[in-house]
Amino acid sequence: MTQLELIRKLIETLKKVLIQKVSEIKLGDLFELKIETRKGAIDMLVEIVIEEETLHLKDIVIYPEAKGALSGLDKDILKTRTKLIETARKLGFKKLKITGYRHPKSTSAKPGKKININVKL
User: Fold this and answer.
1) Could you tell me if residue 78 is left (phi over 0), alpha (psi between -120 and 50 degrees) or otherwise beta?
2) Residue 110 and residue 85: Cα distance in Å, rounded?
3) What is the mean pLDDT of the segment spanning 92-110?
4) Which end of the chain offers a freer environment for a tag, N or C, measured as fewer CB atoms within 10 Å?
């Protein structure tokens, strides 16, 4: 299976359990995902990179669809992370890596903080 085919399979699987909308998938491009939460939709901009047995969600940016801050999304974010882990594992990946930065003007606890999450599957 090529990288592009694997990425498409990943997205198709996630669409069944997590993602509401996704932009066209092209290797090496950033693309947009939309996820519904209890407090409204959030959009994610991410580049998906496959590095041997590692699924790398690179340069991830997460922001609310509507104007204004969304707070209290801990459960939703953990659910999203769990679904990503389960899906990556089912597709045969051995590691999930998520990297990026919190937006400098974010209302999160630490705006501008570097994100570097590594999960052994």
Assistant:
1) alpha
2) 24
3) 81
4) N
Q: How many residues are recorded in the chain?
A: 121
CA end-to-end span of the chain = 20
| Contact call for residues 42 and 21 (beta carbons, < 8 A) | no
Asked if 30 and 59 count as a contact pair (C-beta separation under 8 A), the reply is: yes
Sheet architecture: strand order including 54-64: 19-22, 30-37, 40-51, 54-64, 95-101, 114-120
- What is the pairing mode between strands 19-22 and 30-37? antiparallel
**CA 43, 46, 51: angle at the middle one, nearest 5?**
150
